[in-house]
Amino acid sequence: MPMGKGLGFSGAARVAGCILAHAEKNGAGKKEFDEAKFEILRTASELEGHPDNAAASMFGGFVASVDGFSVRIPTPLDPAIVVWVPQQQTSTKESRTKLPTNIEFKDAVFNVGRTALLVAALAAGDVRSLSIATQDRLHQDSRFSKAPDSKLALQAAVDAGAWCAWLSGSGPTIAAMVDRDSAQRIDDALPRHGSKMVLSVAQHGAELFAI
């Protein structure tokens, strides 16, 4: 997995490390692992600084996570995720320094409403709402100022018929959620100066196998 690209490498790596530490201490039994999942996630999230990527790596699927609570969002959708990965890297720490320290109330309301709509759209399988639900006023424009090619890639994905597209993590990768039958067409529409992958949403999270 590419590092520094906004694809959640650090969260996945920390979950894997915490699982290995658990297995070293407690063995690789399924019952013990299942009972320890939230404790493993808590540790990985503390190391990561937030639970976003760690929760998805632990549980798979679409996950909402905050303050120690993580819930998978049930959805009838089984989309493809098309990602465009440019050559440049982004430091998450540095990227956060570019964000505003204060936001307007109307922008906070804008994002909170769309977060609620995103959860509802995923649960209902309403792909028509996803483009609205993934709009943002808090961070994408600030980060696009340092990655203008990523903004062009996002627009290319939407213009080609993606259900929605967004800046992955702090960038510079762009991810687009698409119908599986349209994945290759949307992949072909993305800029050629970057790596492209057609991925699936993991239906299962982290697993521990005894060797």
Provide a descriptive summary of the structure in words.
This protein is of the alpha+beta class. It has a single domain, classed as 2-Layer Sandwich (Alpha-Beta Plaits), CATH 3.30.70. Helix content is 46%, strand content 14%. The protein contains nine helices and six strands; from the N terminus they run αααβββαααααββαβ. The strands form two sheets. The chain has a four-stranded antiparallel beta sheet with strand order 4-5-3-6. A hairpin with a 6-residue loop joins strand 4 and strand 5. The radius of gyration is 18 Å and the shape is globular. 30% of the residues are buried.
**What's the CATH class label?**
Alpha Beta
Look at the helices and sheets and give the structural class: alpha+beta
The termini sit apart by 24 Å
Strand content: 5-15%
Classified in CATH, the superfamily is: GHMP kinase, C-terminal domain
Q: In the CATH scheme, what's the topology name?
A: Alpha-Beta Plaits
CATH architecture: 2-Layer Sandwich
How many structural domains are formed by the residues? 1
How would you state the average pLDDT, rounded? Answer: 91
Low-confidence stretches: none
Number of strands: 6
Order of helices and strands: HHHEEEHHHHHEEHE
State the helicity in percent bands: 40-55%
Order of strands, main sheet, comes to: 4-5-3-6
Shape assignment: globular
Q: Count of helices? A: 9
Largest sheet: 4 strands, antiparallel
Classify the oligomer: single chain
Rg measurement, Å: 18 Å
